[in-house]
Amino acid sequence: MPTLSGFARKTFTSLRGVAAVALVSGLALGPASAEDYPEMTLKFGHPYAETHPLAKGAQMFADTIAEKSDGAITVEVFPNSTIGSSRDLVESIQIGVVDFALVPTTNVASFYPPLDIFYLPFLFRDSEHAYAVSDGPVGEALYADMLDKTGIRTLGMYESGFRTITTRDKKIEKPEDMEGVKFRVVNNPLNVATFKALGANPTPMALSEVFTGLQQGTVDGQDNPVGNVKAFGFDKVQGNITLSNHQWAGIMFLADDKMWADLPDNVKDLFAATAKETQEWERKELNAVESQYLDEMEADGMVVTRLTPEQAAAFQKAMEPVWEEYREKIGSDLIQSAVEAN
């Protein structure tokens, strides 16, 4: 049986006690009546297009809260980076300008570096392994420590799936094919290191700027999950997509802990339960539509490259220097706990 690292064990032991108390309290209280909910209006920002399952999950959260509180609680959703990029949203959460946000782990890692574990290339075997890390003892320990250090609370982990590589003209089948490609990456040192290791010229760029960058030739390619490629129209300005599955994109459901501390217990329970409900819905929805999106892009002329096991192994081997560099930065114990999670 795999063992939990020293990093996660101490925090998880205390969390189990808290979770047990919360469960008993929830069962004892039962559902609150509508008049028990105070009137309030809260802001929820994210960078995703309205058609994306992530955006639909956020809107479902807002709609469910309005319904269950009988209209007392309004959650205003601001999609498509309309109130800031992913980094802006994390900063806004910290200063209390935004109450909730959906932000990729890699952007939150700029504020809490241990989250880089989620973007260590080729760490996750499949979606179930990623869920075991994000929802289990490793994730819970990370979120508790992040709350303590940043004042940002984690209510759930949506996802946008495994990342793919897209390019305008060049078919990517082996690491050497990335040599010299002007490539947009998320503004995080780990993402830059990942594509430098492949020989590309990585260019950090906000998600809201990527379409224009690809269209104008500022960059020749980018990496994103299938859902993002379709939702943001990248398939219209890219001719090739390689299903590299090099990183899993967990999308954190964040809350301002100062706002949270002032909430009545029944509102906290409502928010926490609804975040988990919509997390499960969003994951199922995303996985259901990914194959549909891929079929549509292929039908429209995009060249889809599915790596053979041997080709995938070559990309994994190219990531060895990245793993060595980040083993010390992230921590060997944390990495081992993530590798062994099930």
Automatic annotation (TrEMBL):
Gene Ontology CC annotations of this record: outer membrane-bounded periplasmic space
Keyword Disulfide bond: no
Main localization, broad class: other
Matches recorded under InterPro entries: DctP_fam, TRAP_DctP, TRAP_DctP_sf
Cellular location(s): Cell envelope
Database matches in PANTHER family: PTHR33376, SIALIC ACID-BINDING PERIPLASMIC PROTEIN SIAP (PTHR33376:SF4)
Protein name: TRAP transporter substrate-binding protein
